[in-house]
């Protein structure tokens, strides 16, 4: 009988402590999570009658959990998620338009680019919390000076090859990593009106360039984040193209710096990765929308931004946060900020979500030398059109 | 079985087993290595020996969200898994006994139904299950999860237990019935003790179904204090980077209880029928 | 006579219970529909009145919203002004005078976007309706918006149901009491009429379908009763009540938590999900999948190609799992083996560690350049294999991983089964001079079969639907060709625009394939004279 009694007691002890107040879902870990919680604590101290409850949800399940919970009236009041699903969710009435509460003064708080990323079909859907893009990390012991052009980048290939290493390691099979070259060669996934421009000569050139990087041994084939990290840490890659999150993965003792991405020698244009903004969004089924907006306002405000920039090295879209001396000192942060000038916003159209997988398959084939870019890009465009048609 | 095979054969068998165990253990050792080595990336060497030991990852696992939250989540996992085992085995053994011993119309159909419903891929049932649990008000509650896990485990448990019950001779039950025992008493006093290996297998299976399950737990629970250990482990997988050290540490922490349960159940798996009981 | 009456009333009670449930469902649906219709109509009327400068009912919130003034710097930020009973005020957040301000704002924004009048139910689950139309024209045109209050739905008509039930019961009883030559006809008519009467409320609630279903239930019940089947079923239940009570817990929980989602899942296959709305498309999803999406047979996105890969995958895995598992179980149950306990514990590890972790680990191990597998191969003097660039290699990588994950399960099942074999059988066989192979075939195998049978049957179903390994190890590479059916279905749900309807249809097709396969196998097994009961 005893074990059963224990189980029952444990069960009763595990009574529901359902959160009250405003519930915010996020998928931050490590430093970002600590920073977010510090910001939340500041709010809670000032507003004990309107507590803010943070719930960490694993990233894998995040989007789908939201899509199933919110339409049924469950789910959070607010949540943080990259802006690329805004279009999807706006159309499905999962999120609430917020331009009702936002005036020019509030809008001025953010950089114009990050703010306009929150817009879709003439309404405003969220407030930006952080901006992410790729930049060039390099080891000063292997590459004393950051390369300005891709030719300079490739120049150290023989030296690295002698050490059984690569010049540049990056997640090349994913469109997100490849986008820097795509845009640098003048290609785009879709134009401003939302029409697909996947199969273009510029895109094919970009793919050929990426394939050449692999074939000449400048970059490893089919590298994913863990491999990229390991290569950099073990000195087998002189450079890595990655985002602000990468610095937490670098081993202690590795002499690293960040520089802006180089200019593509073939076109003279800078390599331009995607710019994604992490948005704070309001659920369409939030119970007290005014209170929820008050929290949104604070969490995306300058005070919270400064906390997050300091603790988690987030590239926050609030220019005022950079006045903070500690934040101003952060070199890497400053470089990422400068890189933002040469970035292309990630389209918020629902079509974008369908592009990733076919493009990844195509990149895999082309980079492995098993297919030609032109025909694969046509296949990708056809596949995407198939899926969005219905 | 009465004669021992030659020494050479025996040595060969032991050696083969050792090699197999090494092959089986190798990935496990890599996980251990990742858990005890500092650093967040995949080291590039194939050696399973960590070059430096640290408990940092375990510390982050326990402490990152506040110690008592980890304990709470571990407790959730334990409670849910134990409850699933109890409920699942109970539901299954009564059903299996009925299917084995009683003759009634629709018996064969009942048996196949248990198997048939397994055929719809579980990954696609998440949405409908979510809707059903929502309507029953069982979202974000451990009861809901236990019920779902138990029903997932039922088909296998029912079939296995039926097999075991089938292999038990009926003389014992007939004797007891003549003596005037009720079906329930026969079931509880005579059949159950004899079916220990079957119960052990189904118990282990139910426990593991519940213990390692991640997708349903993370979809249905919306409160961090209701998360289970697999959800906690999955939290170390971020959008762009994964904390592999914490991930591996979590894997080890999650696997140890299963090993413990198996160790405890081993003697039932091995015990089996004694000659005396069979002869009756 | 009283036996007949008893039978009539018993059958009536059961069938009427069912009919009441159906009628109630019809009532709820009708009521909801009714409320929605009334709300929408009210909103529409009110907004028309507003547009004509008339008055609205006090329970309706109406207002005129001025045109949007965009901020020059931020085009998505717009001011609007609201005129409520003559007074203008700014519509903006901060300190709203009325909680509906935001709704008015959003309504006006919606009207601007769509450029036409609309009426819809509010999406916040409150049951309120909102309508908007133009007021005036030209650049200073305003938008008239009306929002209704939530309506209270009509109560359940308990009296009506009780009355009808009473009437039905009386009719049934009357039918049973008809004596003499009309007895059988009387009973039949009574049974039928008694239940059919319950269709009347359904008709009142304008649900022809429910009424039809009730009449069908009535007819079926009457016919079953006439054929004596209802008696048979009732007596059977009473006779087997022990069995029923033993089966009840499993049956009930399976019904609620397996049957219901299952039926729901199948039903969803007939709809298409697009941006949050579901639309009925009948067999369209199924046709599309089964026709291979209009692609060639060797295109990895063609259903039949994926089916082939899945079947091959299942067969390879089950074969390996059973062979290795049984072989190990046999080895581990030898008396002369030392360290059995430890070996057993260690060999169960692959099953103990959560499979999404080990699948990721194996994925890393199969890395073409830095993976552990290739390092070991190099160490043994062989060339490394590029695991994910050829179909054979990627497929093998998946099989190796899944075998590693799956053999402990078969081993444990076989171990348990081996323990039930009485030792005397082997001794007797040895005395009779049987060879080890003969001992295996005639003693071990028959004892293994009852336990391995379900394990293999279920194991093959699980392997057929094994998502984690394929998704995490090869991820479908090269070029989607190592996908199995269940990963392709997943992609429909989550990577191709949330097409849950397609994924559900896919799931139904997978289910039917497995069902047909098992029926086929069962037939063969039965024809071999092998009966598992």
> Which residues of chain A sit in consecutive blocks of at least 5 with pLDDT less than 50?
none
| Fraction of helical residues of chain B | over 70%
Structural class of chain A: alpha/beta
In percent terms, what proportion of residues of chain B is strand?
A: under 5%
> Which of globular, elongated, flat, extended, rod-shaped describes the shape of chain A?
globular
> CATH superfamily of the largest domain in chain A, called what?
Periplasmic binding protein-like II
> Going by CATH, what is the homologous superfamily of the largest domain in chain B?
MetI-like
Count of individual beta strands of chain A: 12
CATH class of the largest domain in chain B: Mainly Alpha
H and E order of chain B? HHHHHHHHHHHHH
Assembly type: heterotrimer
Domain tally of chain A: 2
Number of strands of chain B: 0
Can you name the CATH architecture of the largest domain in chain A? Answer: 3-Layer(aba) Sandwich
Q: Poorly predicted ranges of chain B (pLDDT <50, ≥5 residues)?
A: 271-280
Q: Label the structural class of chain B.
A: mainly alpha
Explain what you see.
The complex is a heterotrimer of chains A (390), B (280) and C (533). In chain A, helix 2 links the parallel strand 1 and strand 2. With 390 residues, chain A is α/β, with parallel strands linked by helices. Chain A starts with a helix and ends with a helix. Chain A is globular. Helices cover 44% and strands 14% of the residues of chain A. The mean pLDDT of chain A is 89. In chain A, the strands form 3 sheets. In chain A, strands 1, 2, 3, 6, 11 and 12 form a 6-stranded mixed beta sheet that branches. Chain B is mainly α. In chain B, helix 1 runs antiparallel to helix 12 and helix 2 crosses helix 12. In chain B, 50% of the residues are buried. Chain B folds into 2 domains: 54 residues, no CATH class; 213 residues, MetI-like (MetI-like fold, Orthogonal Bundle). Chain B starts with 6 loop residues before the first helix and ends with a helix. In chain C, 64% of the residues lie in helices and 9% in strands. Chains B and C meet through helix 1, helix 3, helix 4, helix 5 and helix 6 of B and helix 8, helix 11, helix 12, helix 13 and helix 14 of C.
Quick overview of this protein structure:
The complex is a heterotrimer of chains A (390), B (280) and C (533). With 390 residues, chain A is of the alpha/beta class.
């Amino acid at each position: 009988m005893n074990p059963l009694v224990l189980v029952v007691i444990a069960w009763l002890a595990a009574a529901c402590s359902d959160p009250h107040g405003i519930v915010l879902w996020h998928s931050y870990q490590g430093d970002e999570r600590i920073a977010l919680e510090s910001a939340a604590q500041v709010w809670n101290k000032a507003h004990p009658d309107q507590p803010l409850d943070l719930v960490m949800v694993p990233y894998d399940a995040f989007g789908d959990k939201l899509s199933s919970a919110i339409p049924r009236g469950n789910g959070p009041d607010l949540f943080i998620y990259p802006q690329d699903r805004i279009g999807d969710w706006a159309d499905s009435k999962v999120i609430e338009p917020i331009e009702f509460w936002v005036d020019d003064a509030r809008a001025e708080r953010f950089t114009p680019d990050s703010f306009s990323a929150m817009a879709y079909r003439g309404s405003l859907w969220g407030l930006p919390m952080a901006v992410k893009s790729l930049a060039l990390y390099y080891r000063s012991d292997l590459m004393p000076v950051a390369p300005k052009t891709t030719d300079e980048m490739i120049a150290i290939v023989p030296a690295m090859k002698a050490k059984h290493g690569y010049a540049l390691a990056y997640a090349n099979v994913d469109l997100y990593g490849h986008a820097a070259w795509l845009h640098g060669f003048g290609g785009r996934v879709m134009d401003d009106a939302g029409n697909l421009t996947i199969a273009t000569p510029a895109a094919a050139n970009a793919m050929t360039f990426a394939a050449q990087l692999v074939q000449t041994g400048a970059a490893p084939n089919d590298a994913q984040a863990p491999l990229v990290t390991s290569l950099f840490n073990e000195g087998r890659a002189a450079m890595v193209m990655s985002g602000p999150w990468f610095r937490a993965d670098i081993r202690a003792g590795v002499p690293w710096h960040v520089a802006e991405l180089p200019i593509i020698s073939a076109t003279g244009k800078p390599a331009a990765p995607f710019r994604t903004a992490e948005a704070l969004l309001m659920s369409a089924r939030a119970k007290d929308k005014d209170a929820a907006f008050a929290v949104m306002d604070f969490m995306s405000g300058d005070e919270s931004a400064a906390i997050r920039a300091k603790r988690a090295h987030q590239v926050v879209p609030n220019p005022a946060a950079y006045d903070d001396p500690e934040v101003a000192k952060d070199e890497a942060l400053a470089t990422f900020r400068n890189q933002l000038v040469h970035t292309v916003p990630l389209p918020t159209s629902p079509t974008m979500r369908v592009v990733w997988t076919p493009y990844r398959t195509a990149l895999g084939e082309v980079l492995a030398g098993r297919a030609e870019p032109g025909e694969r890009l046509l296949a990708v465009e056809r596949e995407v059109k198939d899926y969005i048609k219905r | 079985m009465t004669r021992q095979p030659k020494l050479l054969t025996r040595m060969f068998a032991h050696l083969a087993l050792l090699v197999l165990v090494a092959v089986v253990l190798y990935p496990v050792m890599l996980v251990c290595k990742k858990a005890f080595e500092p650093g967040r990336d995949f080291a590039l060497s194939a050696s399973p020996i960590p070059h430096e030991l640290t408990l940092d990852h375990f510390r982050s696992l326990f402490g990152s969200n506040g110690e008592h939250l980890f304990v709470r989540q571990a407790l959730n996992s334990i409670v849910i898994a134990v409850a699933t085992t109890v409920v699942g085995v109970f539901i299954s053994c009564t059903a299996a006994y009925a299917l084995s011993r009683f003759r009634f119309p629709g018996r064969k159909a009942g048996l196949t139904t248990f198997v048939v419903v397994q055929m719809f891929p579980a990954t696609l049932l998440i949405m409908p299950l979510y809707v059903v649990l929502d309507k029953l008000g069982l979202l974000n509650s451990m009861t809901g999860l236990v019920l779902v896990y138990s029903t997932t485990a039922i088909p296998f448990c029912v079939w296995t237990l039926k097999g075991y019950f089938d292999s038990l001779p009926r003389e014992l039950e007939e004797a007891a019935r003549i003596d005037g025992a009720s079906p329930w008493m026969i079931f509880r006093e005579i059949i159950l003790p004899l079916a220990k290996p079957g119960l052990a297998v189904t118990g282990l299976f139910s426990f593991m179904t519940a213990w390692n399950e991640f997708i349903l737990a993370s979809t249905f629970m919306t409160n961090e204090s209701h998360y289970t250990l697999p959800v906690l482990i999955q939290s170390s997988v971020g959008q762009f980077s994964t904390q592999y050290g914490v991930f591996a540490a979590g894997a080890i922490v999650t696997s140890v209880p299963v090993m413990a349960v198996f160790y405890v159940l081993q003697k039932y798996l091995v015990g089996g029928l004694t000659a005396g009981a069979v002869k009756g | 006579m009283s036996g007949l009456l008893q039978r009539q009333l018993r059958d009536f009670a059961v069938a009427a219970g069912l009919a009441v449930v159906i009628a109630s469902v019809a009532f709820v649906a009708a009521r909801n529909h009714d409320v929605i219709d009334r709300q929408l109509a009210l909103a529409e009327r009110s907004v028309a009145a507003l547009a004509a400068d008339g008055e609205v009912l006090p329970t309706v919130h109406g207002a005129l919203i001025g045109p949007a003034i965009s901020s020059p710097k931020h085009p998505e930020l717009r001011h609007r002004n609201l005129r409520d009973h003559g007074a203008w005020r700014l519509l903006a957040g901060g300190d709203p005078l009325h909680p509906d301000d935001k709704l008015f704002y959003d309504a006006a924004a919606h009207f601007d976007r769509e450029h036409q009048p609309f009426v819809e139910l509010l999406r916040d689950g409150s049951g309120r309706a909102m309508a908007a139309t133009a007021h005036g024209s030209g650049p200073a045109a305003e938008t008239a918006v009306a929002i209704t209050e939530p309506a209270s739905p009509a109560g359940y008509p308990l009296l009506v149901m009780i009355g009808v039930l009473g009437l039905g019961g009386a009719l049934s009883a009357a039918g049973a009491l008809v004596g003499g030559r009309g007895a059988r006809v009387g009973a039949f008519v009574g049974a039928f009429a008694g239940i059919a009467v319950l269709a009347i409320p359904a008709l009142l609630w304008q649900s022809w379908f429910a009424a039809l279903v009730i009449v069908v239930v009535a007819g079926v019940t009457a016919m079953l009763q006439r054929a004596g089947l209802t008696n048979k079923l009732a007596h059977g239940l009473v006779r087997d009540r022990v069995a029923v009570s033993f089966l009840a817990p499993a049956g009930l929980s399976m019904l609620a938590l397996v049957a219901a989602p299952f039926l729901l899942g199948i039903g969803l296959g007939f709809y298409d999900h697009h941006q949050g709305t579901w639309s009925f498309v009948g067999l369209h999803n199924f046709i599309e999948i089964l026709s291979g999406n209009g692609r060639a047979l060797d295109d990895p996105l063609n259903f039949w190609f994926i089916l082939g890969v899945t079947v091959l995958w299942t067969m390879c895995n089950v074969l390996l799992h059973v062979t290795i598992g049984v072989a190990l179980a046999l080895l581990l149950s030898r008396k002369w083996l030392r360290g059995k306990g430890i070996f057993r514990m260690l060999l169960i590890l692959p099953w103990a560690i959560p499979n999404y972790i080990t699948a990721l680990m194996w994925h890393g191990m199969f890395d073409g350049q830095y993976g552990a597998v290739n390092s070991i191969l190099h160490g043994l003097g062989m060339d490394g294999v590029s695991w994910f660039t050829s179909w054979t290699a990627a497929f093998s990588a998946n099989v190796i991983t899944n075998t590693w994950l799956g053999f402990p399960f078969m081993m444990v099942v076989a171990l348990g089964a081996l323990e039930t074999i009485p030792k005397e059988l082997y001794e007797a066989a040895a005395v009779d001079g049987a060879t080890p192979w003969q001992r295996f075939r005639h003693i071990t195998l028959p004892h293994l079969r009852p336990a391995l049978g379900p394990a293999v049957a279920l194991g093959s179903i699980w392997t057929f639907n094994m998502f984690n390994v394929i998704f995490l190890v090869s991820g479908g590479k090269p070029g989607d060709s190592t996908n199995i059916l269940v990963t392709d279905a997943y992609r429909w749900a989550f990577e191709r625009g949330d097409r849950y309807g397609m994924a559900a249809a896919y799931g139904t097709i997978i289910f039917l394939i497995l069902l047909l396969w098992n029926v086929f196998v069962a037939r063969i097994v039965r024809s071999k004279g092998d009966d598992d009961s």
